[in-house]
Amino acid sequence: MTRRAVARALVHLSLIAATLVVLLPLAVVLLTSLKSSREMADGSGALAPPDDPFNVGNYVTAFQDGRMLTAFGNTAFVLFFAVGGTVVIGSMAAYAIDRFAFRMKKPVLALFLVAALVPGVTTQVATFQIVNSLGMFDSLWAPVLLYMGTDIVSIYIFLQFIRSIPVSLDEAARVEGANAFTIYRKIIFPLLRPAIATVVIVKGITVYNDFYIPFLYLPSEDLGVISTSLFRFKGPFGAHWETISAGAVLVILPTLLAFLFLQRFIYNGFTRGAVK
Amino acid sequence: MAGLTRTAPPAATAARGQVTRRPRRRWSPTPWLFLLAPLTLLIVFTYAPIANMVAYSFTDWDGVSPGLHFTGAGNYAEIFTRADLFRVFFVSGYYLAASAVQITAALYFATVLSFDVRFRAFFKGVLFFPYLINGVAIGFVFLYFFQDGGTLDSVLRLLGHHGDHAWLGTSTSANVSLAGVSVWRYTGLNFVLFLGAIQSVPGELYEAAELDGANRWQQFRHIIAPSIRPVIGLTVILAVSGSLSVFEIPYIMTGGATGTETFVIQTVKLAFQFNKTGLASAAAVVLLLIVLAVTWVQRRLIPDDPDRKAEPV
């Protein structure tokens, strides 16, 4: 073998090893979710396949006792309003900043820029008091507003995209008598579609996965979103790993499907999102 | 930051250059109507909390009672002098070390997969997917992984290693395990960022290097490394601020027990369990200042690439 062939073999080996490291913990949880509590107790080990690969008993338990249906409902509610709000607010801010010259534009821009550097986890101590004084503690509107109000990345994505829409389009519409709001709604917003897709995907996945904000602001069990409801599995199902595993698989599955169907958008979106 | 403007079509940028915007010096309410909602939210949920937090940090407020006393810099002194409060900074060390591993691994896989490898899309997907998974689900997956007789023990037994090691049992072992989970979770993001930067290098450069007889290492050293320097700089700052603000994984997996408490877990406990809003605010202010300082240093060390000049800010 030439040196290059050896190198190539080693590279493949490392890739296969990485694949195992990533997939094995997930695969074992999938296996565990299909086992009965009797199988879990018989000491066959974590890697043993389940007796009945179509045993969905644990999933039923997770749905019924783990209140996963309520959780998915609450998550859908928060997702819908938070993502919708982010799109509207982000695109409006970008429109105002890019298409108008006004006094105080620089300070406004700086306000958004500096906010992007503030890690949300640090300020929650004080944010909590504000949310509380607005009477939104333990209400689904608290996470909705927080997700909407603290998303600077989306504004950047819109700002960047809006600059590629020729100003001549606005001018033409203005000549025909359209006002600023009509221009935004009829011309800018529809043309922002690719940016909207990116924001919806990135924001959607972030909101779906967030634990910190619902954990702080939604203590009621009825208001559990998927993260907090899954977290509550820790108590009642204590050592019932088969039920906990089923819950985890239920939470991961939508993400996997989204990833498989929207791969290209997801890669682009997250690279842009991370590098603001 | 880098690579952003690269994606903007050149035609659009050129078109923009020609447009001279009508200067509107007359005060008009229109832009403010559009900015009303975004600015209100920004001020209410970002700036007002920061201002309040700084104010609370000089008091002994408990978060509920109407009375509070001004305590000067007492809370800050407490954070830096009480050993049990200061200890959380050492826990960040584990995550910082993990970030180094993570960045190295991401760099390696990004380099390898930037060349033509069979099943490239599959490997890319597999490496990135953990980043998309819900943190609580990851926490449970790895609780089972490190569980006595769980995934890791079973794999080790398969490899002929017997022995019962309580992975989350001692402080060092638990922190290393948790930091390992964080590597598992975040390597994919770094990897995709690096890969994007590497792939923006024109292919002819590699061909030319190959013709000149450069080997893979030389190609990495002289073509890839310089082109991804800005992204690496960005990743390093994300890693530093990230390792200081770790919360989810340790909170979900151990709740901060066996010496795995991080700065944010401690702050959350101080504020919401022990009602020490003043002290927790001071802690949060310290964290905020560190993160801002790190960002500032990074901006100074790695100057913006010329591309960014086109950015609106």
UniProtKB/TrEMBL annotation, chain A:
Keyword flag Transmembrane: yes
Transmembrane segments: 12-34, 76-97, 109-128, 140-159, 195-218, 238-262
Family the entry assigns: Belongs to the binding-protein-dependent transport system permease family.
Organism: Streptomyces griseoviridis
Residues annotated as signal peptide: none
Domain of life: Bacteria
Membrane topology, from the record: Multi-pass membrane protein
Keywords: Cell membrane, Membrane, Transmembrane, Transmembrane helix, Transport
Location relative to the cell: Cell membrane
Domain ABC transmembrane type-1: 72-262
Protein name: Sugar ABC transporter permease
Gene Ontology annotations for the cellular component aspect, listed alphabetically: plasma membrane
GO BP of this protein: transmembrane transport
Alphabetized Pfam families for the sequence: BPD_transp_1 (PF00528)
UniProtKB/TrEMBL annotation, chain B:
Principal location: membrane
Origin: domain of life: Bacteria
UniProt cross-references to Pfam families, sorted A to Z: BPD_transp_1
Domain ABC transmembrane type-1 positions: 88-298
Transmembrane segments: 32-58, 94-115, 127-146, 166-184, 231-253, 278-297
Keyword match Transmembrane: yes
Xref: InterPro entries: MetI-like (IPR000515), MetI-like_sf (IPR035906)
Coiled-coil ranges per UniProt: none
Keyword annotations from UniProtKB, A to Z: Cell membrane, Membrane, Sugar transport, Transmembrane, Transmembrane helix, Transport
PROSITE patterns cross-referenced by the UniProt entry: ABC_TM1
Lipid bilayer topology: Multi-pass membrane protein
Spans annotated as Disordered: 1-23
Subcellular localization: Cell membrane
Low complexity biased stretches: 1-16
Family: Belongs to the binding-protein-dependent transport system permease family.
Official protein name in the record: Multiple sugar transport system permease protein
Species of origin: Streptomyces griseoviridis
